[in-house]
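4.2 Preliminary Data

To establish feasibility before requesting continued support, the project team ran the inverse folding procedure on a target of 125 residues. The structure was first converted into the token representation described in Section 3, and no sequence information of any kind was made available to the design step. The complete token record follows.
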């Protein structure tokens, strides 16, 4: 019962940012978001960190990533499309988006990371 209530609460938080959100497909308890600085050739930690969700949507793209940010009030959303290039290096999930920016998620739990990597691979093909 508590899990259903928690899921409803999390979905409500996602819907505040994305009104087309339909269902939570998978979650990870804690991730940190990084951006690759190509000029410095190094990863930079951002101010985005928190619970990670893959959710389905009622409109295209039909899946997205959401991080319920614990560090500030700005949440993170990344659409999952077939243009997303993924690279798995658990506990990291690295990707290049449509804007050719290289980004990555560090997962606190490696098993959650591996599960999310598999799901993202399925959703991008």
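Position-by-position output of the design step:
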């Amino acid at each position: 019962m508590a899990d259903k209530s928690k899921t409803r609460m999390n979905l409500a938080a996602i819907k505040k940012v994305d009104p087309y959100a339909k269902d939570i497909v998978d979650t990870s308890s804690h991730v940190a978001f990084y951006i690759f600085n190509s000029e410095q050739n190094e990863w930079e930690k951002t101010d985005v960190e928190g619970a990670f969700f893959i959710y389905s949507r009622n409109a295209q793209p039909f899946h997205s990533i959401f991080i319920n940010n614990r560090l500030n009030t700005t949440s993170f959303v990344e659409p999952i499309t077939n243009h997303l290039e993924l690279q798995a290096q658990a506990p990291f999930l690295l990707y290049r988006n449509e804007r050719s920016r290289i980004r990555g998620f560090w997962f606190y739990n490696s098993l959650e990371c591996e599960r999310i990597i598999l799901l993202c691979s399925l959703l991008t093909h």
